[in-house]
Amino acid sequence: MGKLQAGLQELNVRFTKDMGKLQAGLQELNVRFTKDTGKQQAGMEELNVRLTEEVGKLPARVQKLQAPCPGWYKMGNGICYKAFRIEKTFSDAAETCRKDGGTLVMPRDVDTNEFLVSLHNNHDYERYWIGLHDQREEGKFEWVDGSALGDFNHWAPGEPDGSGDCVYSDTDQKYGQWLNGPCSSEFHFFCQVALAKGNP
Ligand SMILES: [Ca+2]
């Protein structure tokens, strides 16, 4: 019985030592785990900050995709158009469009012409220069980019009557019909600008 008791006591001592080592090991693991968790939390917080920043930029990006035209220009048929409410002579109006990177409008089809009419949103009697004229040769109308008038036109009845070399659109009473008049007259005007490269 004496030997057995001595053996049991030794086992007990070893077991206690081993338990001590095990506890120390567990404690170390716990310390490491806490550190790692701290790092992970810091990482998550950084990620969250970055995500919040990116999400904050989204509305501006979406707006740019939806409205790729310069300020106040509206897109129709892949081109940007704007109705200017100030009144200028034909050449001053053309210069204003050039400064915006474009030209006076060249409505070469009925859809574009109707879109222009829709751009002016009150119902007063108004006249808008378009980019059409016969300044080089009387009766031979051409667009401001030098191209010929082509098949589509929207002359008002009796026009062009030779009363001037520049063409304006009557946006109200005659639903966008064209008339010629003196280039020195001061009317509103429409500009067009091509979409910036890189935009969809
Ligand atoms: Ca003329």
TrEMBL record:
Give the residues annotated as coiled coil: none
What are the boundaries of the signal sequence? Answer: none
Identify the domain of life: Eukaryota
Single annotated GO MF:
carbohydrate binding
Annotated C-type lectin domain ranges read 76-192
Alphabetical list of CDD domains matching this protein: CLECT
Q: Which UniProt keywords apply?
A: Lectin
Answer whether the UniProt record assigns the keyword Electron transport to this protein: no
Q: Name one Pfam family in it.
A: Lectin_C
Task: Quote the protein name from its UniProt record.
Answer: Lactose-binding lectin l-2-like
